[in-house]
Amino acid sequence: MGRPSRIRLAVALAGLELLAGLLLIIQGGALLSVDRPVPAPSHDIRSKQLTRPGATVLDAQRRVPARKIVQDLIAPPQLDSSEIERIEPRPPLSELGLAVPPKTPMPQDWGEVLLYAPIASSSAIFESMGRTVVISGVQSIDMDKTCSFVDVVWPCGQRARAAFNSWLRGRALNCLVPPEVDRFAIAAPCRLGRQDVGAWLVSNGWALSLPSGIYGKAEVTAMDTEMGIFGPPR
């Protein structure tokens, strides 16, 4: 027998073995189907609607109402407003509950304080000893303000602050301020010796009088005499 004949014979035998295996598999499946009963299809419409796990539990929770357990013990009792009695609040558990916030010092509690080495930050505001004080009754000239006199423009804001610093010369001011240091600027009347600081600033044209201030006449005098910001560059 030649080599081609042996190959054809081997292929034929392999095909027969494969066919026999398929027949055995089919026969085994038939035997299993005979031994296990097939359940009859259900005609309940609700079973067709359960398309995800857990749907049966959720559906049961929707259908079954909640039970009331010891309702008389859990429900709040009915109260008659005429039987309610108002009593005094209990005392605090410790003395810390009796603490009150510190009293804010009022203007009548303020006192004159010497503020040393003042430095002007504008024409009517200075800083000294951790305080920022605005001279009350006057309006400061902004640092970037410019003034004109006979068609000449000059930086009167910077000049006003320089004039205030030059007049102070580091001398202590006596100001009426609250006893405690405040981080915010506070408006207060001040004097240098016997000279009222606000009156000096307005009369020399280095600050303006507020409408409600007491230096209105001093401002008119400064304008008439062309002092400070109302006059030529200085």
Automatic annotation (TrEMBL):
Tree of life domain: Bacteria
Name recorded for this polypeptide: Thermonuclease family protein
Organism placement in taxonomy: Bacteria, Pseudomonadati, Pseudomonadota, Alphaproteobacteria, Hyphomicrobiales
